[in-house]
Specification:
The protein has 366 residues and is mostly helical. The radius of gyration is 33 Å and the shape is flat. It starts with 12 loop residues before the first helix and ends in an 8-residue tail after the last helix. 41% of the residues are buried.
Length: 366
């Protein structure tokens, strides 16, 4: 549009521009005023709700994340500690197997060559790797009571492997054996600090020279689960615990032969294991009797094969622990509450003894 000035007057160009700017400002002000007068709130749709992940989902996510971190730490340490490289390679292989069982895989980015500074740090961090393996084992074990049977069993087996890694690395590096792993109860109301929990005892003789620790019923009894004192057991739980009891009878018998034949340096360890299995058998018998189930009795004798040498005795001990681990995994899946916690703890303790006798871990004991 062309602006025609009145005849006889010339309108400067700047005045035209100022007038245009003023009109634009008035238009914007009018728009804002009309918006402010409209007090009707804008239509808002329903907000999306996010539900908390299930115990299985959360536990599997934690297990995957920790397996990835542990594998990366083991790889970094192997680059700076050649004397541990063989053992650490087996540890990484176990973590890969855990990730596969958990439906994941080790990212390719987790295996780069470490920098010089990372290598120097790793050389002094054997203790840190041992601590990380132990903490991750405890984390997996703590998730066992709340998980569904299949996931609970897998977590207990992963915890057993991680605890075995910690034991073997500590022994190789000359460090103290890590502590025993227990499923402790959640802090009760009014006890946020968990002051009512008992101290964690020493490791159940996973390595030579460790003091024995006798098994005790776990203190963990999740809400809604029956305690052993209630005497209730499902048919599957009765069968699984009876099978473990029968296995403990055989273990007590077998360790008698192991004590007699094993090398003198390992004799105290064998006696400690015999004591552990004897006590575990007694605990299981009492549990079955409380549920109105007659425990299986020990056989007069068991076929142990030819246990004529110290190495054969060590192999027998590892085989006994392996077979009990399989029974223990079945018990974890078949039980709930305190019975499941006891079974998971026993599975971990037995896997640690088997790894010590064999000198290597198993990716998924049981």
């Amino acid at each position: 549009m062309t602006v025609e000035p009145p005849e006889g007057r010339v309108v400067p160009r700047r005045a035209v521009l100022r007038a245009g700017a003023a009109l634009t400002g008035l238009a914007v002000a009018g728009t804002l005023a009309s918006c402010s007068e409209d007090t009707t709130p804008p239509a808002v749709g329903p907000r999306p709700t996010t539900s908390a992940p299930s115990p299985d989902t959360a536990a599997v996510a934690r297990a995957r994340a920790s397996a990835t971190r542990l594998a990366a730490s083991a790889q970094a340490l192997a680059a700076s500690a050649p004397e541990l490289a063989g053992l650490l390679a087996a540890v990484v292989t176990d973590h890969r197997a855990h990730l596969s069982a958990l439906g994941a895989a080790l990212p390719a980015a987790s295996s780069p060559s470490p920098s010089a500074s990372e290598t120097r740090a790793a050389s002094a961090d054997v203790r840190a790797v041992v601590g990380a393996e132990t903490a991750a084992a405890q984390q997996a074990l703590d998730d066992v009571p709340r998980a569904t049977p299949g996931v609970a069993t897998l977590l207990a087996r992963i915890a057993a492997a991680r605890a075995s890694h910690a034991d073997l690395l500590a022994a190789k590096a000359g460090l103290p054996a890590p502590a025993v792993l227990r499923i402790l109860p959640s802090p009760a109301a009014g006890d946020p600090a968990g002051a009512s929990t008992s101290p964690v005892p020493q490791s159940p003789a996973p390595l030579p020279g460790a003091a024995p620790v006798t098994p005790q019923p776990s203190a963990a009894t999740p809400t809604g689960s029956a305690s052993p004192a209630s005497g209730t057991l499902s048919e599957a739980a009765r069968e699984a615990l009876a099978a473990v009891t029968a296995g403990e009878h055989a273990a007590v018998y077998a360790y008698g032969a192991v004590v007699a034949r094993v090398a003198p340096r390992d004799r105290a360890r064998a006696r400690n294991a015999w004591t552990w299995h004897s006590t575990r058998r007694d605990v299981l018998e009492e549990r079955l009797l409380a549920a109105g189930v007659q425990p299986p009795t020990a056989a007069p004798a068991y076929d142990l094969g030819a246990v004529l040498s110290a190495s054969a005795a060590g192999t027998l001990a590892a085989t006994v622990e392996d077979r009990l681990a399989a029974l223990g995994a079945r018990a974890v899946a078949a039980t709930t509450g305190q019975d499941r916690s006891d079974a998971a703890e026993a599975l971990v303790a037995g896997a640690r003894r088997a790894a010590a006798w064999r000198g290597r871990s198993t990716a998924l004991p049981g």
